[in-house]
Every structure is written in structure tokens, then in C-alpha cells.
Amino acid sequence: MYLPPKSSPHTTNKSSTQNLMLRVILATLPAFLVSSYFFGIGPAINVALCIIFAVSIEAFIVSLRKRPVSYALKDGSVIVTAVLLGLALPPFSSWWLVLIAIGFAVIFGKHLFGGLGQNPFNPAMLGYVVVLVSFPVAMTSWPAPQTVASSDALAHVFLGTPWLDAWSHATVLDTLKNNHSLTLHELWQDYPYSGWISSNSSEWINLAFLLGGLYLLYKRVFTWHAPVAMLLALALMSLIFWNGSGSASNGSPLFHLFSGATMLGAFFIITDPVSSATSNQGRFIFGLGVGVLVYIIRAWGGYPDAIAFSVLLMNLCAPTIDYFTRPRTYGQRKAKRGFNPGDN
């Protein structure tokens, strides 16, 4: 008889894993709607393909492991991975790019280590990094908001039809990183989709993820320690190294907080109870590390956005963080300096 393992993630919330996953999916709805407003059916295609591929691969791998497929699928964890990865990928990504990303996420990010609760890396970010490193051009070219017809988009996704120049543009982070001569005022005048809460799709999408994250905090799906620490560290780093609005500027704190995948990372990625630290103090340290690394890679690294790389690097540090931040065992006093084990 098969006895389903009762492993992590552990939580103080009395809801089942399935209910928690449903809440996370519900919290992504504002970002999905905002993305759909700017990019049409692009986000829906990404998410749909990710879910179809993820469920198919999950069922196949579980059957190879001779485990009940229905039990593995009903917890909803693979759906959450698919939704988060689908929203992180550029809209209208080619089907094969989506397949590679979600394939690595499910196979190498989850089942290679034993399945749910045993993966040291965040599966969605692992899949994202694989395609980002392997196909940088496809991963850094986003369609211009509200410019792509549905028929042209479907042809690009399923038939590989190349984008017209008028359909694609670099992200604001990539534009800033490759700027060497213009002031920020001149740069954003030439960039048609920039500005603080004007026509910049990235800002609105980040606000939508922030709204969803606050909902999850209200429902106590996770604690505030990791997201607050990450956003605080990123804001402080960008404030300390903010060198004005000249051509060498790395961007203001507001720019970094509401660009790229900042809010997605803060509320939906680093709060993963499996690959993150486990104690409240550990989660705070984990979030600080992610925030510092995000700014370092954005400002001086080779990639404009750094959420995925930063999360994976801190996933490696999570066991060490847990070791040094373990809470005191109930009923035990804190050891004193010079304590002799033989003393009473």
C-alpha cells in the first residue's frame, strides 16, 4: 500500500496545500489582467502552454516513479509553478521556449530532488534561468504594448514567424543598462513606454503583483520577513549608489522597486517555503541577500534583471542560514559562553 509522504513545506496555516496553492493562483490574477491589458492574449498563451506542458510532464514523471498521478497533481503545486513561470516569460514566447523552461522547472527543479518539499531550488526560477542563459535574445525582447494582432501573435508562437521591428522593444532595465550617453530625462523621452505610472507596463504589472502579495500577507500564507527585507535591501542599495540622472545613472529606488520582476520575486518567489529559509530571522536574512544581489547584478552584472539569479544563489545559502538561525529548542536555555557540558 502506498503511503503518501508528509514532508515539507510545513506551515502554521491550517489550510491544506491545495488551498494555499489556490490562494497563490488567485493572487496572481491582478498581474495577469494588467499584463493582458498591455499585451493582449500573450500572457494567456504563455500561462496556458505552461500549465498544459507542466501537468503532462508531471503526470509522466510521477508515473515513471510508480506513484499515484492524481495524488501528485491535486495539490496544485505544479500549476503554481506554471502560472508564475508563464507570467515571468516574455509575452508570446515560442512554444518550444515555454516547453524547455517548464520542462527544466518540473524535471530538474522538482522531481530530480524527490518532488514537492525536497527541492533546494525554486523550480520556476530554475527554468527561467535555463532559457535566459540559452536564448538571451528571445528572453530580452518583449513585444511593444498593445501593438500585436492576435493572428500575428499566434503565428509567432506556433510557427516561428519573426517579429516586426515595430512589435518588439527592449525592457526599461535593458534600456538603462545599455545607456552610455543620454541623461535619464533624454533617455525616457526617447523610450515610448516609460514614466512613473504613465505608460510603463512594468510599473503597472509590479503594482498588480504588489496587490496580490498584500492579499497573501493578509491571508497569512507567508510572513512579512522575506519580502520586506528584499524590498528594503534593494531600496537602500539603489539609494546609496544612486548617482543622479546623468548618463552613468543606475536608476532611482522607485525605478528599481517597480521595474522588471521585483514584486513578483518579493511576494511570489522568495516566499517559497521549500527553497527559502525556514525561521523568521532566516527569512529576513534570505530576503536581504536577494535584494542586495538583485541590485549588484542589475547595476554591474551582465543581465538587466536579476531576480532569478539572485534567488537561485540565495537558495544555495538557505541551509547555512537555517543552521545559524535555528530557534532555541522549547524548554532549553540559551548556552552561555564558556559553558562546560559536565556542569549542572
From TrEMBL:
Q: Which residues cross the membrane?
A: 20-39, 45-64, 71-89, 125-144, 224-242, 254-271, 283-300, 306-324
Q: Where in the cell is it found?
A: Cell inner membrane
- Main location, first listed in the record: membrane
> Which co-factors does it depend on?
FMN
| Keyword terms, alphabetized | Cell inner membrane, Cell membrane, Electron transport, Flavoprotein, FMN, Membrane, Phosphoprotein, Translocase, Transmembrane, Transmembrane helix, Transport
The record ties this protein, via Pfam families, to: NQR2_RnfD_RnfE (PF03116)
FMN phosphoryl threonine occurs at T171
Q: What is its EC number?
A: 7.-.-.-
What top-level branch of life does the organism fall under? Answer: Bacteria
Membrane topology of this protein: Multi-pass membrane protein
- Name the enzyme group at the top EC level: translocase
Is Phosphoprotein a UniProt keyword of this protein?
yes
Q: How does it assemble?
A: The complex is composed of six subunits: RnfA, RnfB, RnfC, RnfD, RnfE and RnfG.
Q: What does this protein do?
A: Part of a membrane-bound complex that couples electron transfer with translocation of ions across the membrane.
Indicate the family of this protein: Belongs to the NqrB/RnfD family.
Q: What is this protein called?
A: Ion-translocating oxidoreductase complex subunit D
Per the UniProt record, the source organism is Thiopseudomonas acetoxidans
Report which gene this protein is encoded by.
Answer: rnfD
